[in-house]
Amino acid sequence: MKKRNQVIRDIIYIYINEREHYTITYGIEFEEFAQALFQSLNHLLLLKHHFEDGDFNRHTLHEFVSNDKLKKLMDDDVYGYGDFCWIDFEEEEALNELPSQAIAELLYLGHLKEHLKLPFYNHLSNRYVYLAHDDGWFNKTYYRDFSDFYRMMGEVIPGKLSQTKVEKSLLGMKKKRTYPSISSDILRQLKPLLREGVILSIKDIEQSRTNIEIPIWTIGDFSNMDDMYEEYLNIIKEPCDAKLVIDKKSREWKVYGR
Length: 258
Known about the structure:
Layout: E1 11-17, E2 22-26, H1 30-36, E3 43-48, E4 55-57, E5 62-65, H2 70-74, E6 83-89, H3 92-95, H4 100-112, E7 128-133, E8 138-143, H5 146-164, E9 166-168, E10 174-176, H6 184-188, H7 191-194, E11 198-201, E12 206-207, E13 211-218, H8 225-235, E14 242-247, E15 253-257
Antiparallel strand pairs: 1-2, 1-11, 2-8, 3-5, 3-6, 4-5, 6-7, 7-8, 9-10, 11-13, 12-13, 13-14, 14-15
């Protein structure tokens, strides 16, 4: 099994399109996504992948990952697959009854990362469709219920902060800290900015004795992440539009700004 890419991406790009139920992100990897939403994932039908331990479904002619192999997939180097696309499903018996039209739509999804119709199927009872190129670089993810997106972000942001930021104790010694989840209510305050497309930068945090502040810039709607990153390098010279702030003492998250 290939080892998972260990680079920590310390900026996150997010654009949300609620009408069509998807997000486009940079900086969030499958392992982080699946860890945050693990309890809501059952089996994954693989549309594009290089996972070597999947099972074959004769009806769809696709491989799938059963729930008991999910952690093995999470540990694999899915970044190294190039394209990595999947849709979750509840029961293999229902997979075997998937209509040919739905199978054709799934092929289109995996190939072009676009939907012909909103990709939520009663046969599959799927909550997500995950369409990545160089996982963590470009990810287009469909959510049946956007509360799952906010729940995922509420776990991923503190996780990245704990991985990349080392605080100093009173004695001046460096120590790694963990941070509490961010409630969906807090993150929903950012919805007007997320609809425009934002950069949330752990790399550029500011820290005082009382707070850690994660700056957020409105940057626009991007599908080319090279262009997005170039714009990020320009925009960090400007004042940020909002901040996600954690109080070190109370351990509570707040949003400052718009």
